[in-house]
Write a structure and sequence with these properties.
The protein is α+β, with helices and mostly antiparallel strands. The protein has a domain of 90 residues: D-amino Acid Aminotransferase, Chain A, domain 1. Helix content is 16%, strand content 25%. The longest helix has 10 residues.
Length: 131
Amino acid sequence: MVGIGFMDWTLPEPILAAPVMSSSLPVNYAAEPKWEGYRAPVAHYADGHVVIRSRRGTLMTTALPEITAAASALPADVALDGELIVWEDGRLAFERLQGRLNRTAAGAAALAAQWPAHSWRSISCVMAPPI
Protein backbone atom coordinates (compact mmCIF):
# COMPACT_ATOMS: atom_id res chain seq x y z
CA MET A 1 0.00 0.00 0.00
CA VAL A 2 1.37 3.40 -0.97
CA GLY A 3 0.30 6.45 1.04
CA ILE A 4 -0.12 9.75 -0.77
CA GLY A 5 -1.23 12.04 2.03
CA PHE A 6 -4.98 11.89 2.42
CA MET A 7 -5.55 8.48 0.83
CA ASP A 8 -3.93 5.10 0.36
CA TRP A 9 -3.75 3.34 -2.94
CA THR A 10 -2.94 -0.34 -3.14
CA LEU A 11 -1.28 -1.21 -6.42
CA PRO A 12 -2.30 -4.52 -7.95
CA GLU A 13 0.49 -6.86 -8.94
CA PRO A 14 1.08 -6.30 -12.66
CA ILE A 15 1.02 -9.10 -15.17
CA LEU A 16 4.42 -8.85 -16.82
CA ALA A 17 5.52 -9.90 -20.28
CA ALA A 18 7.51 -13.10 -20.62
CA PRO A 19 9.86 -14.11 -23.44
CA VAL A 20 8.92 -17.04 -25.65
CA MET A 21 10.94 -19.12 -28.08
CA SER A 22 8.32 -19.03 -30.86
CA SER A 23 5.64 -16.60 -32.01
CA SER A 24 3.19 -19.43 -32.70
CA LEU A 25 0.34 -19.71 -30.20
CA PRO A 26 -1.84 -22.58 -29.04
CA VAL A 27 -5.44 -22.63 -30.28
CA ASN A 28 -7.69 -20.10 -28.46
CA TYR A 29 -4.73 -18.01 -27.22
CA ALA A 30 -3.94 -14.40 -28.07
CA ALA A 31 -0.81 -12.31 -27.65
CA GLU A 32 0.40 -8.80 -28.22
CA PRO A 33 3.84 -7.26 -28.67
CA LYS A 34 5.81 -5.99 -25.70
CA TRP A 35 5.59 -2.22 -25.68
CA GLU A 36 8.72 -0.27 -24.75
CA GLY A 37 7.41 2.18 -22.20
CA TYR A 38 6.52 2.62 -18.55
CA ARG A 39 3.93 0.40 -16.94
CA ALA A 40 1.83 2.99 -15.13
CA PRO A 41 -1.40 2.61 -13.19
CA VAL A 42 -3.34 5.89 -13.40
CA ALA A 43 -6.10 6.86 -10.95
CA HIS A 44 -8.58 9.73 -11.08
CA TYR A 45 -10.28 10.30 -7.72
CA ALA A 46 -13.66 11.91 -7.01
CA ASP A 47 -11.99 15.07 -5.67
CA GLY A 48 -10.22 15.55 -9.03
CA HIS A 49 -6.84 14.32 -7.78
CA VAL A 50 -4.85 12.28 -10.36
CA VAL A 51 -2.12 9.82 -9.39
CA ILE A 52 0.27 8.11 -11.81
CA ARG A 53 2.69 5.54 -10.42
CA SER A 54 5.19 3.15 -11.91
CA ARG A 55 4.59 -0.56 -11.42
CA ARG A 56 7.06 -0.37 -8.53
CA GLY A 57 5.26 2.53 -6.87
CA THR A 58 7.33 5.54 -7.99
CA LEU A 59 5.13 8.64 -8.15
CA MET A 60 5.18 9.87 -11.77
CA THR A 61 2.32 12.38 -11.83
CA THR A 62 4.50 15.52 -12.07
CA ALA A 63 6.76 13.91 -14.68
CA LEU A 64 3.84 13.26 -17.05
CA PRO A 65 1.74 16.45 -17.24
CA GLU A 66 0.10 15.48 -20.54
CA ILE A 67 -1.08 12.14 -19.12
CA THR A 68 -2.20 13.84 -15.89
CA ALA A 69 -4.32 16.25 -17.95
CA ALA A 70 -5.81 13.42 -20.00
CA ALA A 71 -6.53 11.34 -16.88
CA SER A 72 -8.47 14.29 -15.45
CA ALA A 73 -11.10 13.56 -18.11
CA LEU A 74 -11.67 10.02 -16.77
CA PRO A 75 -14.78 9.46 -14.66
CA ALA A 76 -14.29 9.95 -10.94
CA ASP A 77 -12.93 7.02 -8.92
CA VAL A 78 -11.49 5.17 -11.91
CA ALA A 79 -8.06 3.58 -12.10
CA LEU A 80 -6.53 2.09 -15.23
CA ASP A 81 -3.42 0.00 -15.63
CA GLY A 82 -1.50 0.43 -18.85
CA GLU A 83 1.68 1.26 -20.69
CA LEU A 84 2.91 4.80 -21.41
CA ILE A 85 4.73 5.00 -24.72
CA VAL A 86 6.23 7.68 -26.96
CA TRP A 87 6.32 7.37 -30.75
CA GLU A 88 9.09 9.11 -32.63
CA ASP A 89 9.80 8.72 -36.34
CA GLY A 90 7.61 5.62 -36.60
CA ARG A 91 9.20 3.76 -33.68
CA LEU A 92 8.78 3.42 -29.93
CA ALA A 93 11.19 5.84 -28.24
CA PHE A 94 11.62 4.64 -24.66
CA GLU A 95 14.61 6.93 -24.17
CA ARG A 96 12.23 9.93 -24.44
CA LEU A 97 10.44 8.73 -21.30
CA GLN A 98 13.55 7.88 -19.30
CA GLY A 99 14.58 11.47 -18.69
CA ARG A 100 11.19 12.50 -17.32
CA LEU A 101 11.34 11.20 -13.77
CA ASN A 102 14.25 13.23 -12.44
CA ARG A 103 13.07 16.60 -13.70
CA THR A 104 11.36 19.58 -12.13
CA ALA A 105 7.73 20.14 -13.13
CA ALA A 106 8.90 22.78 -15.63
CA GLY A 107 11.55 20.44 -17.07
CA ALA A 108 9.02 17.61 -17.42
CA ALA A 109 6.55 19.98 -19.12
CA ALA A 110 9.24 21.04 -21.61
CA LEU A 111 10.02 17.40 -22.44
CA ALA A 112 6.29 16.63 -22.68
CA ALA A 113 5.90 19.42 -25.22
CA GLN A 114 8.80 18.09 -27.28
CA TRP A 115 8.08 14.34 -26.99
CA PRO A 116 4.59 13.79 -25.54
CA ALA A 117 3.63 10.45 -24.08
CA HIS A 118 0.53 10.70 -26.22
CA SER A 119 -0.18 7.01 -26.32
CA TRP A 120 -1.36 5.19 -23.24
CA ARG A 121 -2.31 1.58 -23.79
CA SER A 122 -4.87 0.56 -21.22
CA ILE A 123 -4.45 -3.02 -20.06
CA SER A 124 -7.20 -3.19 -17.48
CA CYS A 125 -9.61 -1.19 -15.34
CA VAL A 126 -8.53 -1.88 -11.77
CA MET A 127 -10.97 0.38 -9.89
CA ALA A 128 -14.36 1.78 -10.87
CA PRO A 129 -17.27 3.40 -9.05
CA PRO A 130 -20.18 1.12 -8.14
CA ILE A 131 -22.99 1.00 -10.69
